[in-house]
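Worked example (supplementary).
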Amino acid sequence: MNRLSKLIAWEILTQNKAYNFVKYLFALFIFCTLCIALANTHENINKFGLVFTIIYIPVALLGFSSHIFKSDLDDGSLEALLSGFTSFEIVLAKFAALYLNSLLACLLNLPVIFLAFNPGLELFIQLAIILTLELFLACALVILIGSVQSYFRSNTSFLPQLLMTLMLPAIIFSGLAIENIDKTYLIFILTGINMILVPTMITLASYLTRNVFGCS
Amino acid sequence: MLCFDKLKCTINGVNLFSGLSVSLLPSSIMYVLGKNGSGKTSLLRAAAGIARISSGNIYFKKNNIYDLPKPYCTYIGHNLGIKQELTVFENLKYYSSFYNSLEALEASIHYFKLQKIMDKKCYELSSGTQKRVALSKLLSCKSNLWLLDEVETNLDAENKYLLNNLIISKANSGGIILISSHDAPTIKTSQNLLIDDYAN
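After joint prediction of all chains, the assembly is encoded as:
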């Protein structure tokens, strides 16, 4: 456990110092939020703003997929890490670091969302819960895409768009949960989707990472 | 003891080597020699538990390496495994903490004379200096099995001398060192592995 926490700390450091992940994501979130706020009429902003938010926040992460494993593969860090850790530990650490970083960027953006879209406190809390759950799934998806890209090496640039469809159920239920604030069971359905998809994605990513350098 | 038992490696349908069986006792240094694409790197990666071998088993200290808790070895590959955007100190500190050997960090910095570049980002360094940073992991990441993949590339005479001294002293203290190389061995060893002999 102690070694895993060191690995998570290493991943957080790498993602921030090498790729400026929190800054990149925060800037992108702010840009999208302000664009939505400025492009919509005042009457629609409350409804559309939040719906767009639950779409663009997880999708914004997908651009980061090529940095997760591919750069580690290119500079030899993945080999060095695989000689010291199991592939499951590496994938878990990357996932945890990515989730913590994206959650931080999202939390920093929440006050701006509140000011821009004026959703009311109850809906705002619902939005925060939905985004926390959505990011959990989106981070697992990014890890899976990154591992597939490093495993197959070539012709993988379309993968983020292709695998993005796995986010659709979560986005649909998030939209429904925003529209129907009284139906709290939708949050539990969203949690259920996460409980099925996230472990599957982590396991698959772990398998692919273990076999990146394998003989056939 | 490190033991390769009937190893076979096939990559993309090409059989690199098969029937490779070798044992290394503690205090052994062995060069893995062969031409380009003969499977030297694959063998070292397999010994480090990075790559799965097609068939056969690798044992270290009488245990199959896939059953051993990691890290049981220090591996320096072609690509050095240092993050270019991080400082030398950050790279070394984290890797030595993974091996729970932070106490050896200072010794490794002094041995390869890295004191003056500790706060520099790795991309600012020359290839040879980056290699020195990677090699200092040999001291800061403690283990009894060193797997070195063409480590002498980009090193000047002084640093080659330092590296060879380090390898010999490690062997003298009971370590096992496996080195892949294109060139003739620079350290006299009792056994070398000509991997081309195991190609089909």
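Two points are worth noting when inspecting this output. The interface with chain B takes residues 3, 6-7, 9-10, 13-14, 17-19, 74-77, 79-86, 210-211, 213-216 of chain A (CB under 8 Å). The two ends of chain A are 32 Å apart (CA to CA).
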